[in-house]
């Protein structure tokens, strides 16, 4: 029974009523008087010398009186003794007991009826209690401190599982099942409740169940105390709150963890960096941004972008020290907190992170070669508050991107002014684009042999309202911003196509016009379709248009999409020119993989061709390579007649540079083309002997 035994203070008194009480008293009194009379008579007979017959008769009468008294005692006191024994057992906790209410005197029958009714009432209450406990699904228990007996109701097996003989039957065994992380506090709380004066106890903790797992329970109890205030029994029940806890954990995770990667989110990150700043106030913050992640979403789809983020998050978990805290702040931006780390440790951690991120990721349709940029700020050197540290790391990240991405950069105090200047420049460039302050200037590509114009390259110039005409070097850094680069591309393409169409109508158009294209533009999934559509709308043959790309555009995230875009326009007839050849990576590989028609020798080699034998050897090699592959080779940066003569002697056919013409606005290039079409400069052939560059 889960109910505690009745209090020993309870006493039951049954009062007999008249005339039954009077009859009992008269019967006992009469038997007693008769017995006394017989004893006195017998004594007198013995002293007076009465005969044997009288003595025998008196003795027999006395025995008969005793028998009658005995029968009266048995009839009267035996039921009372039975009732007393039953009440004692009942007080000890037994309720399945019955008295025979059909025999004995009337008072006993009434007592038996009362006791039987009380037992029935208690049994009924316990049955109701058992039904309620089973209906609620709770495990009900009772622990007796004196015997250390722990008793459970029949619901425990459905809740905890396992066989009955394996479940806990004492307090120590129960405590062993509590989760190690909870055990000490729960034991302390329970013993405090038992040893105190309170009547209730309630805790939530994890308990080991039969399948070997831990489950959350809400355990609450009532402490029953004796006359001295000591705990005589503890009655409690346990409710399975695993689902509730799981729901609470899900809600907490939704508020504090990134749903995609499972990493702490910005809210949790803020609390962690606050704690670090309030603690030992030493450590490092690394802000990490995935380079060109937008192009992954745009070209491969958001599912591929999400898969890449999950993969990179797992890589970060594997390479960041256990003491580090990794957070996803949003989009493609992550933060790594390294408590107690110094500059050397932060730099080493950043190097490991970049190395693991660079490993290719197998996508559903393409292999992604991710890259990342990391900005590092140290605590407390680079800020006294979390917001200052975040700002410093963000500035360092911005600087790393400006320096070419795929690297880590530490914050430096002087960067604040530089970053502000870049920010102001981007704002001014955007405003200039809206005000149409950017206009294309054109530089001719000429035949070294006769000076005729073979093509024209469009180069953007900024007609600044206060500073005049500014070359690309003054705003080139803003093209690292994808949005600015795409805006430049749209503005340049619209004006260039309109100008070339006008030259065609006037009969002045050269073979083709070349336009530089940004990596952001080439990574657009519909780049080829956009270019071809605009050429058709302008009425310009595809073969009269060329796209110039640098080798660096072909690397990093989205390189597969760049190659696809170039292949798409090239298959339609658009020419592809590889600009600044020789300054990038694995140039020969690119010539094999990318459909290149024109190779442009970087001006750094051309400018030093007269004095540097190394540059002469490189130029000769590129020219020979171009002839072998059937590519047109254009030398950039031809500034003197000596450059032109040496290049022609080496077999270079086309050149571009200040020696022939500077970039000029549309009205000037139109006049230049008109003049060239009516007058061609004399031949310069034969001024240098054959093999002058060998």
What order do the helices and strands come in, and which of them pair?
Blueprint: H1 20-48, H2 52-91, H3 106-136, E1 139-144, E2 149-152, H4 156-160, H5 171-176, H6 180-195, E3 200-208, E4 214-225, E5 231-240, H7 242-256, H8 266-278, E6 283-290, H9 293-300, H10 302-319, E7 325-330, E8 333-339, H11 343-357, E9 361-362, E10 367-368, E11 372-379, H12 386-402, E12 408-410, H13 415-434, E13 438-447, E14 453-464, E15 468-470, H14 482-506, E16 512-516, H15 519-522, H16 527-538, E17 545-550, H17 559-571, E18 575-581, H18 587-593, E19 598-601, H19 603-607, H20 613-629, E20 632-636, H21 641-650, E21 654-656, H22 666-678
Parallel strand pairs: 11-12, 14-16, 16-17, 17-18, 18-19, 19-20, 20-21
Antiparallel strand pairs: 1-2, 1-5, 3-4, 4-5, 6-8, 6-11, 7-8, 9-10, 13-14, 13-21, 14-15
Helix pairs in contact: 1-2, 2-3, 9-10, 10-11, 13-14, 16-17
């Amino acid at each position: 029974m889960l109910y505690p035994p009745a209090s020993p203070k309870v006493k039951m008194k049954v009062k007999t009523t008249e005339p039954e009480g009077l009859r009992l008293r008269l019967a006992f009194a009469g038997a007693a008087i008769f017995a006394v009379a017989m004893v006195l008579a017998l004594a007198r007979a013995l002293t007076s010398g009465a005969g044997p017959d009288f003595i025998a008769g008196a003795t027999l009468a006395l025995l008969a009186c005793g028998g009658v008294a005995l029968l009266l005692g048995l009839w009267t006191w035996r039921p009372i003794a039975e009732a007393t024994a039953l009440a004692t057992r009942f007080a000890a906790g037994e309720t399945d007991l019955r008295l025979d209410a059909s025999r004995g005197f009337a008072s006993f029958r009434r007592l038996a009826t009362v006791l039987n009714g009380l037992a029935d009432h208690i049994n009924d209450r316990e049955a109701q209690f058992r039904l309620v406990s089973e209906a609620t699904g709770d495990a009900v228990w009772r622990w007796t401190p004196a015997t250390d007996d722990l008793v459970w109701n029949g619901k425990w097996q459905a809740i905890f599982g396992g066989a009955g003989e394996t479940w806990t039957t004492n307090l120590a065994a129960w405590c062993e099942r509590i989760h190690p992380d909870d055990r000490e506090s729960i034991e302390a709380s329970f013993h405090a409740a038992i040893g105190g004066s309170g009547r209730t106890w309630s805790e939530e903790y994890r308990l080991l169940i039969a399948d070997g797992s831990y489950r959350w329970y809400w355990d609450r109890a009532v402490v029953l105390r004796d006359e001295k205030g000591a705990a005589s029994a503890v009655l409690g029940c346990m409710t399975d709150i695993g689902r509730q806890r799981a729901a609470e954990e899900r809600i907490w995770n939704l508020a504090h963890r990134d749903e995609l990667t499972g990493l702490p989110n910005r809210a949790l990150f803020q609390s962690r960096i606050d704690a670090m700043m309030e603690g030992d106030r030493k450590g490092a913050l690394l802000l990490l941004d995935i380079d060109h992640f937008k192009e992954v979403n745009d070209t491969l789809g958001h599912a591929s972008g999400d898969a890449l983020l999950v993969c990179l998050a797992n890589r970060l978990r594997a390479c960041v020290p256990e003491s580090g805290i990794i957070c996803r702040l949003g989009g493609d931006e992550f933060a790594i907190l390294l408590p107690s780390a110094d500059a050397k440790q932060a730099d080493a951690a950043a190097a490991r992170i970049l190395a693991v991120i660079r490993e290719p990721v197998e996508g559903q349709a393409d292999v992604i070669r991710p890259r990342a940029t990391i900005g590092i700020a140290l605590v407390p050197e680079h800020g006294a508050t979390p917001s200052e540290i975040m700002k410093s790391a963000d500035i360092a990240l911005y600087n790393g991107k400006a320096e070419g991405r795929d690297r880590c950069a530490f914050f430096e105090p002087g960067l604040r002014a530089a970053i502000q200047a870049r920010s102001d420049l981007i704002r001014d460039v955007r405003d200039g684009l809206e005000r149409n302050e950017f206009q294309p200037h054109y530089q001719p590509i000429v035949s070294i042999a006769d000076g005729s114009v073979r093509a024209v390259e469009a180069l953007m110039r900024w007609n600044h309202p206060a500073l005049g005409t500014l070359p690309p070097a003054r705003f080139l850094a803003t093209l690292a911003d994808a949005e600015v680069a795409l805006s430049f591309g749209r503005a340049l393409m619209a004006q260039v196509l309109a100008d070339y169409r006008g030259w065609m109508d006037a009969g002045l158009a050269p073979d083709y016009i070349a336009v530089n294209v940004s990596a952001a533009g080439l990574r657009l999934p519909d780049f080829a379709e956009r270019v071809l559509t605009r050429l058709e709308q302008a009425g310009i043959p595809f073969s009269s248009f060329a796209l110039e790309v640098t080798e660096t555009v072909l690397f990093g995230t989205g390189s597969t999409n760049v190659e696809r875009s170039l292949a798409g326009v090239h298959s339609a007839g658009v020419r592809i020119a590889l600009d600044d050849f020789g300054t990038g990576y694995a140039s020969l590989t690119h010539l094999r993989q990318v459909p290149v028609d024109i190779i442009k020798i970087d001006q750094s080699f051309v400018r030093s061709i007269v004095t540097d034998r190394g540059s002469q050897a490189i130029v000769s090699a590129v020219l020979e390579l171009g002839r072998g592959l059937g590519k047109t080779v254009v030398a950039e940066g031809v500034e003197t007649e000596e450059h032109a003569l040496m290049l022609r002697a080496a077999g270079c056919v086309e050149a571009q540079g200040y020696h022939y013409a500077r970039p000029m606005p549309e009205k000037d290039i139109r006049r230049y083309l008109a003049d060239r079409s009516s007058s061609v400069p004399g031949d310069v052939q034969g001024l240098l002997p054959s093999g002058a560059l060998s």
